[in-house]
């Protein structure tokens, strides 16, 4: 007969061993669970498109029913000569209005923009990716969609159609079957600003005016649209020509974000500042708007731009290379 003390010691040892085994198993399961969650989270984060998507990302999502691609342009014939497979044509003339000479290009009505999107098959469930042969059409469409309440649901293709073609990716000439969509927009009143809004804030250091025009327009050497408006720029407006943000106009890939940040910093934009983008008629500034949004700045858009400001005799203006 075994010694009871020996039996109890053996049982205790076995229980201790089993407890340690169970504890080890639980720890292993916990590690596996954490890895699974981490892996899922990382994949999920990688799948989140953000404001700027690469051609690689878009190639992997051409068949994604939740992603709808919009080819922005003025001429459908150019779209028919080649576009990204599955992309829907979005006629820019339906979302910008070339009306009053004092304003030039302006955002059309909410109803008109809703109709343009629905005709392209856009629904409430879609994430939109915009691109164009002309990068300014893509950025203008991006800005318009954010103004119409689609922030977080619209991205722009880095490099545009030029970059897509340079990579020798698939191009289609076929019109995709389009089922009319259904979407309800909500105009955001805190993105667009007026001349009066800017004029009241000319002496506020945290409001950074960025002029997206080239030298001759900024300095006033162009004579102010050939004498149709006053020459020059808004007092305090710092020139940052929009093409400096990209590699080239034919292949408009944005520079690395660190380089973009330096460009904005050199233009006097500090963390926490409000960036206000303007140009001549509100096209070139839309690319500045996109870049500022990409960098996380609170960004406003002056749609009237110099075509509006320069036509008013009650507003100040500056000529030459100095902001002031």
Percent range of helical residues:
25-40%
Number of domains: 3
Give the overall average pLDDT: 87
Largest sheet: 5 strands, parallel
Strand segment count: 11
Q: What series of H and E elements makes up the topology?
A: HEHEHEEEHEHEHHEHHEHEHEH
CATH topology of the largest domain: Oxidized Rhodanese, domain 1
What gyration radius follows from the Cα positions, in whole Å? 27 Å
Q: Name the poorly predicted regions.
A: 1-21, 25-46
Number of helices: 12
| Secondary structure category | alpha/beta
What does this molecule look like?
- The chain is of the alpha/beta class.
- The chain folds into 3 domains: 1-47; 52-166, Rhodanese-like domain (Oxidized Rhodanese, domain 1); 195-309, 3-Layer(aba) Sandwich (Oxidized Rhodanese, domain 1).
- It is built from 12 helices and 11 strands.
- It has helices at 4-47, 55-60, 76-80, 110-119, 135-147, 160-166, 195-199, 215-219, 223-227, 257-266, 284-294, 305-309; strands spanning 52-53, 67-73, 88-91, 96-98, 105-107, 127-132, 154-157, 207-211, 238-239, 274-278, 298-301.
- The strands form 3 sheets. It has a 5-stranded parallel β-sheet with strand order 1-7-6-2-3, sandwiched between helices. It has a 4-stranded parallel β-sheet with strand order 9-8-10-11. Strands 4-5 form a two-stranded antiparallel sheet.
- β10, α11 (284-294) and β11 (298-301) form a beta-alpha-beta unit.
- α5 (135-147) crosses α11 (284-294).
- The longest helix is centred in the first third of the chain and has 44 residues, at 4-47.
- It is globular.
- Residues 1-21 and 25-46 have low confidence and may be disordered.
